[in-house]
């Protein structure tokens, strides 16, 4: 008997899927519950959504989160793009060291980096708050952005830039007319990824926020400590949808990027129809 | 040579990559308007030489002139030279028209001029109707022609071609060779062509340069390089050859010698200039110049046994083994009395078909 067809396999798969996704379903259902203590289902309402939208605490948290996410993803991109472009032409040993620095930002636990930054900023008398959080997020998220840009750069034929130079383009013109355009899908994807990661960050923000307005995830954490209400569920659903939307946008852009150069816009459309 | 007749001049050009010397003390003149090829095995420095002319590599020492102007320290985007890359390097995000227009746009030519010149170039390479295709929608041969149009539309002093047919299949290559030759005649630009395929270079070029291990071995018309190779390497590289070891007995004037050939005896031979008496030489005989006879006892003949006969259409290649001189290759135009595997034959060649080159040191 094929193990993939065995009933036990099917049951196990269902259990694992339930384990992974049930919490989200519970949050989703809870966000519509009229029972403010969430002890039992007493009927559906959209009240909690309007309460969440009108909650000044939630609003301020969300605005702070957005500002941090925009600024830190731009900073991440700047770091990742300049770094990856240098890395492309760097000598072998330097490349290895650079790769090590990138991977360490991904592998080392975030709490280590967050506390290290916390002590560093204290030493430098750099006021904790929004700018500190932006820098903190960029330190970590630029590593992911770098990986995406590197992957794209590896596939970029160096002869393309030589061809541009051969045809009279100065290095800056060649960069703008060839390299940057070829990299654009990866830049968009890397930016979106950094944005999403910044959106739901708790650890780094918590260490570096000081006395300033907390970003949304920390606001939620504070609300839970006080009391669990369907309003939190509503905010959770909202953030969930936003994150999923951004991530799928990043994935779409990246997968189209993989085909760029091998298929034109028109044939891409055709292949979409054929699917 | 004066600048009015010379398109490219290389003066003692060397290029090292760390320990590795890619090109050593290269002196070379490419004449204005000619189809010039540089051939050699991979790693011989031919592509490095081309890249130095284009400006992608700086020579370690020496001077490069294009059209009489010293361009040694000039960046590629300021050189009146265009390149057809081995990978074509077409811009994937631009269509055929925009690829061809790239150089003219960078030169900030007026819009109307760009339109006419691009259209002309596209017509020249027979890609009318494909102006708005992306490179990825074109076949290999079509992409190759876009790369050509993109380069010649700028009317450079010199067009550099780096194995432009390398990625294409045999039939297409032969077709494009003819087209390239016609194109060269039509535009009158100096072509400098790099390839490892001597047959390709011979069929298209006015002159060829043979390089080996970073050193220029010989420059000349294809026929001259084939018939009168100056070194053993050239003799070997530009086509199948039989190599007989021997020694110079006496020089009989310019390029005429008496030589003792091992296993053959004393013969009159032609050869590279300046071979001294007693010099060890290799006597080269082309396969088509070996004559086979079924009577092994012929005077002056080399006794040999047929190892294999390969039928190649118009002619056959006969592999032979001789106790006196070793392995031989002959090609015969498949006459009535064809030889068979295992038969004993006598091999002869005429004095004027033998060519002595110095043994490489």
Describe this entry's structure for a reader.
The complex is a heterodimer of chains A (275) and B (361). Chain A has one domain (55-274): Orthogonal Bundle (MetI-like fold), CATH 1.10.3720. Chain A is 79% helix and 0% strand. Chain A is built from twelve helices and no strands. Chain B folds into two domains: 6-227, P-loop containing nucleotide triphosphate hydrolases (Rossmann fold, 3-Layer(aba) Sandwich); 240-358, Beta Barrel (OB fold (Dihydrolipoamide Acetyltransferase, E2P)). Chain B contains eight helices and 20 strands. The A-B interface holds A 157, 159-160, 162-170, 173-174, 177-178, 181-182, 260-264, 267 and B 54-56, 75-78, 81-83, 85-87, 89-93, 102-103, 106-107, 133-134, 136-137, 150-151, 154.
Q: What is the oligomer described by this structure?
A: heterodimer
Instruction: Please tell me how large the radius of gyration of chain B is.
Output: 24 Å
The total count of helices of chain B amounts to 8
Shape of chain A: globular
Q: How far is the N terminus from the C terminus of chain A?
A: 33 Å
Structural class label of chain A: mainly alpha
Q: What integer is the average pLDDT of chain B?
A: 89
SSE string of chain B: EEEHEEEHHHEHEHEEHHEEEEEEEEEE
Uncertain spans of chain B: none
Q: State the distance separating the first and last CA atoms of chain B.
A: 32 Å
What's the overall geometry of chain B? elongated
CATH superfamily of the largest domain in chain B: P-loop containing nucleotide triphosphate hydrolases
The total of beta strands of chain B comes to: 20
CATH class of the largest domain in chain B: Alpha Beta
Calculate the mean pLDDT score of chain A and round it: 86
- Strands in their spatial order, largest beta sheet of chain B: 6-7-8-3-9-10
The helix/strand class of chain B is alpha+beta
- CATH fold assignment of chain A: MetI-like fold
Helical residues, percent of chain A:
over 70%
Please outline the helices and strands:
The complex is a heterodimer of chains A (275) and B (361).
Chain A: H1 7-30, H2 47-54, H3 56-89, H4 92-107, H5 110-123, H6 130-154, H7 158-166, H8 171-199, H9 203-208, H10 216-226, H11 230-259, H12 265-274
Helix pairs in contact in A: 1-11, 2-11, 3-6, 3-8, 3-10, 4-6, 6-8, 7-8, 8-11
Chain B: E1 6-17, E2 20-31, E3 35-39, H1 46-54, E4 61-66, E5 69-70, E6 81-84, H2 96-106, H3 111-124, H4 140-152, E7 158-162, H5 170-187, E8 190-195, H6 198-204, E9 207-212, E10 215-220, H7 222-227, H8 232-237, E11 242-251, E12 256-261, E13 265-271, E14 280-285, E15 291-293, E16 302-311, E17 316-322, E18 326-332, E19 344-348, E20 355-358
Parallel strand pairs in B: 3-8, 3-9, 6-7, 7-8, 13-20
Antiparallel strand pairs in B: 1-2, 1-4, 4-5, 9-10, 11-12, 11-14, 12-13, 14-20, 15-19, 16-17, 16-19, 17-18
Helix pairs in contact in B: 2-3, 2-4, 3-4
